[in-house]
Amino acid sequence: MLVYILASWIPESRNALWYRYILKLVDPYLALFRKFIPRIGFIDISPLIALLCLEAVPFIVIRALRFIVIHIFHASWLLQYI
User: Fold this and answer.
1) What global pTM score does this model have?
2) Hey, what's the signal peptide range on this chain (predicted)?
3) Phi and psi of 43, rounded to 5°?
């Protein structure tokens, strides 16, 4: 995702083969955000929001696992493995 964001600022990279592969990988995920986040002039902030969401998912999953371990299983000794 970060490579796509940085390469999108370089017009020459859009014709490169590696950029097309990255675009095929990243574009379906970005399409979810582009539906709801409009462009601001020439600036598309949907990749930034998508990257922030991608970074937040592991944090949310770990917090949910810790909650389950502590409050449902009452096994605080498992926290050292999470």
Assistant:
1) 0.71
2) none
3) -100, 125
- The CA distance from 47 to 36, in Å, is 12
> What was the pLDDT predicted at 82?
66
Please give the structure tokens belonging to residue 41.
């002039």
SS3 40: strand
- Cα–Cα distances (Å) from 71 to 17, 57, 64, in that order, read 50, 21, 10
Q: What is the DSSP string of 51-82?
A: HHHHHHHHHHHHHHHHHIIIIIS--GGGGGG-
46 CA to centre of own chain = 10
**What one-letter code names the amino acid at 68?**
I
For residue 48, give the DSSP letter. H
What SS3 state is found at 37? Answer: coil
More confident residue, 14 or 34: 34
66: which strand partners?
Answer: none
